[in-house]
Amino acid sequence: MIEAVIIDDERNNIDNLEGLLHQYCPQVHIAGIAMHADDGAALIRSLKPDLVFLDIQMPGKNGFEMLQELSTHSFEIILITAFDQYGIQAIKFSAVDYLLKPLNIDELKAAVQKAAQRISEKMQNRELENLLQLIRNREERTTHKLALPAGKETRFVHPKEIIRCESSNVYTSFYLSGNEKIMVSKPIYEYEELLADFGFLRCHQSHLVNKAYIKSWIKDEGGYLVLENGEQIPVSRSKKEAITRMLIHLK
Length: 251
Hints:
By secondary structure, the protein is an alpha/beta fold. The protein is 33% helix and 30% strand. The chain contains 8 helices and 15 strands.
């Protein structure tokens, strides 16, 4: 059994989640509930649960603030949120599981299954630590790390280390400085949004490139970007105008 707690300021949300877990995730035992952030923190310290279901938007003190007050984060977490856009981006950047209201049963089951696997493997929740670091330092982008879940390992990399990304169906390959490659089972469009503020350009349906590694743009024969390492990355016809605006200083 997975010992879990629910922290949410609305009783009907708690009852709904408890009902769904009882019906679809019987391996989860709800050991306690709290309706305020301070009570939730005390509950976590007291029960030391395996899993925490946490609503981000709560009056007085939100879920992020509560998490930052805890000295350790040895539990798995599933955030339940309709939080502001930055909060959602930070959550995705850190690869922390989250569910949007109203809850989707298949997404709930998948999140619980992933948490169960991590609990059984006794993995430290570095994703949550990374999320809190992002929330604390949201303006200091040089410290931000992107979580890349690859198999049983999650790698944390600075966006500046990523030369380019390339898609293959629902997979995305990350090519890092130092000739390292990491493949994750997420489509490239998810990373286009996350990396847009870090100087990445979507020059092709299958390619996302870090502007810092672009050496030149060759406009002959359909057009392609030449990277510092000599690689040639195609530019699709539909992206040419946008690339022109972004790389005007390279002319």
